[in-house]
Amino acid sequence: MTATAKLRELAEQSGVSCSYHGWDGQEHYVGDPTLQAVLAALDVPATTDEEIAASLDDVPNRAWRRVVPPSLVVVEGEHRTFPVHVPHGDPVEVWVVAEDGTELEAEQLDVWVDPRTVDGRLVGRATFAVPDLPPGWHTLHARSNDVEAVSTLVVTPARLAGADRLLQKRRWGVAAQVYSVRSRRSWGLGDFADLADLAAVTGARYGADFLLINPVHAGDPRPPVEPSPYLPSSRRFADPLYLRVEDIPEAVYLPGKHRKRLTEYAAQFAGANRKGKRLDRDTTLRAKLDVLEHVYRVPRSPARRLGFETFRIAGGRPLADFALWCALAEKFGDRPERWAERAPSPDHPDLERLRSKFADRIDFYCWLQWVCDEQLAAAQRAARTAGMDVGIVHDLAVGVRRDGADAWTLGDALATGVTVGAPPDDFNRRGQDWNQPPWRPDRLAELGYRPFRDVLRAALRHAGGLRVDHILGLFRTWWVPDGCSPDEGAYVRYDHEALVGILVLEAQRAGAVVIGEDLGVFEGWVQQYLAGRGIAGTSILWFETDGHDPRPPESYRRLCLTSVTTHDLPPTTGYLAGDHVRLRSELGLLERDLDDELADAMRQRDAVLRLARERGLLPQADPDSAGEGADDRRTVEALHRLIAASPSALLAVSLADAVGERRSQNQPGTEDEYPNWRVPLADDRGRAVLLEDLADNPRFAALAAAVRG
Q1: Are residues 42 and 101 in the same domain?
Q2: Could you tell me which residues come within 8 angstroms of residue 177 by beta carbon, excluding any fewer than 6 positions away?
Q3: Residue 466: CB atoms within 10 Å
């Protein structure tokens, strides 16, 4: 076997794919330097021929070095076995401690496996059956002589119960970017109180069943802040940027001068709320923190003091470490040399001294999370009170920033030297680099998948549903080595049965539904697997094609969230006009001539509009028109009636479409070249639309009627 062949064999044995089937239908092969860099991120030596040979020879020994597997994730009711390794001939007893404390003995099966010499000793293998257990988090124990090993055993439901509830009737909802939806009381950005009001309006006024929002994960503790909600500092905590300061009970008792400061800020932002220009997160966060520092110091009632204490205790070490990171971020900022010297990890010996030194700041940041939690809970209550069957559907971002709180607190659960991205596709011909460290599949298993579980629990805590952005990442993730372009990456495989199973378990416990954003390059069986586990897929009208023709909506999936557009595209009016193509041309993101790209986009648009005309949803085209045959508003309504003909259990209306907004929220492949995630909600004339304007909005009412059929 040649050195290259050995490298590729080692990569495949380590879960790294050496090729992939691209969007263009072709097989693409990964270069050796990429494979070596990805293997290095997995701590697999592969820089020389000798290292490759030694690593490849050692692959079969990996499992035999463990008494029990690092973790086991199984499906309820399925017969599963697992190996136990002890010195050959030694006795072993194996049992499980269930989540409720019950102990069950594991049955050893009559399976003979030849012993193996590993690291100079003869190791034997025994095979045991997983006991019959209910869904939950259990613990596997094995003892041989004076050696005891422990492993996490997770039993997951075969299928999310909420999926069958979804299939009983059609539901529709609104998709909105919370920060962009302001009210007269906002401080320049939409907040958690605005979220509650938006849920009340869409539920009670228009009969929506759910409100799908952008991620509200924690960002930077101080300005300047990252504008993208999909590039958070932590996915386990919420962003205080969204707090409604006046809704914190202690704000009423602010001393006079601080109360006056609060009132002044509110007045200043009242004018900004009416402007349709770029949103300014830094100014908003700076003002809120100025007041929040004083609200925090207002004495709490006995009940609220106890509530905060209970919250801190329940948050445990993860909350304390997150708050410590926030305090240190104030001190060290974005100076990596200071972090490396003073606080390289939460377990560094100097950290105990710093925890004591910054105890007050740690308490402050824990308090911010407590009031965020209260306001998120209030928003979900408002949604259900307004008659929403599902309520708020939170969005789980793909990952976190490389220099954020989770990257610091979770340690080697996240890989270094690589980032998550996506290979080239029809929309991004150069691929994408999201600048996020990926989960290490091996470390996740060794940690019993607890970091992943904690992320899910945080997102589901006050949710009626969860949208998982790029859910294909639970199957495989595109790793881009540092210094490489996005198209020079490789796929790393994950234990999808474990990750999807844990997602189903946690969602079931939260009583939530799950929607997977399953767009992009993927293997055909993935969507069927997700549907089988009760996870809804995602369909976008413009992407549902059969060759060059649009698919009839009747052929769409049933367990699916279907919409006309998404946040990575312009609102429908802009898409119809080809704004997305012109914008990409202006930003230098096109690889072909603008006229050619625009002609292709218009052909795609016209094919969908012809389908709408064939169904009588639009009048026949005027030969002298631009192709719509109707005004923009009527066309948008017709396209929503078109998706309403699908069997999809969930339909979503973009709030931007509901008010006539034309500007994109995000242009993939850019950072500051375009004001991504900084576009406030406005109408077709660019005038700011406030929450107070939504209850009697005729355009919104017409679009709601269109999807209701």
Answers
A1: no
A2: 190, 213, 214, 229, 567, 655, 665, 677, 681
A3: 24
* Contacts (Cβ under 8 Å, ≥6 apart) of 227: 281, 676, 677, 678
d(CA 607, CA 588): 27
Q: Is 326 within 8 Å of 361 (Cβ atoms)?
A: yes
Confidence of residue 629 (pLDDT cuts 50, 70, 90): very low
Task: Give per-residue pLDDT as tens, 195-214.
Answer: 999 999 999 999 999 999 99
**What is the model's pLDDT at position 193?**
98
- Closest listed residue to residue 13, CA positions, set 49, 56, 52, 42: 56
Are residues 30 and 81 located together in one domain of the fold?
no
- List C-alpha distances in Å: 165 to 508, 514, 707: 12, 12, 20
Q: What sections of 239-393 are H helices per DSSP?
A: 256-272, 281-296, 302-332, 336-342, 351-357, 359-385
Assess if residue 589 is contained within a domain.
Answer: no
On whether the CB atoms of residues 369 and 323 are closer than 8 A, the answer is yes
645 C-beta neighbours (distance < 10 Å), count: 15
89 and 133 assigned to the same domain: yes
CB under 8 Å to 366, separation ≥6 — which residues?
308, 311, 312, 315, 319, 320, 323
Same domain, residue pair 52 and 73 = no
Total number of domains constituting the chain: 2
Mark 405-434 as b/e (b = at least 16 C-beta within 10 Å): bbbbbbbebbbeebbbbbbbbebbeebbbb
- Spell out the long-range contacts of 629-637 with Cβ–Cβ below 8 A and sequence spacing 24 or more: 632/573, 632/576, 632/660, 632/684, 633/660, 633/699, 633/702, 635/572, 635/576, 635/609, 636/564, 636/572, 636/573, 636/576, 636/703, 637/702, 637/703, 637/706
Q: Does the global pTM surpass 0.90?
A: yes
CATH (domain of 87)? 2.60.40.10
Task: Give the separation between CA 220 and CA 577, rounded to whole angstroms.
Answer: 37
Same domain, yes or no, for 25 and 98? no
Hey, is 568 helix, strand or coil?
Answer: coil
Judging by DSSP bridges, how do beta strands 513-516 and 537-540 pair with one another?
unpaired
Q: Which among 114, 135, 156 is the end of a domain?
A: 156
Q: Which of 106-115, 543-552, 579-588 has the highest mean pLDDT?
A: 106-115
Nearest to 320 by CA among 356, 362, 367: 362
For residue 23, what are the domain limits?
A: 3-61
Q: pLDDT category, 592, cuts 50, 70, 90?
A: confident
pLDDT for 584: 87
Distances (CA, A) of 99 to 103, 134, 140, 240, 251: 9, 9, 11, 34, 41
In three-state secondary structure terms, 99 is coil
Query: At which of 105, 123, 156 does a domain end?
Result: 156
Q: DSSP letter string over 432-482?
A: EEEEEPPBPHHHHHHTTTHHHHHHHHHHHTT-SEEEETTGGGGTEEEEEET
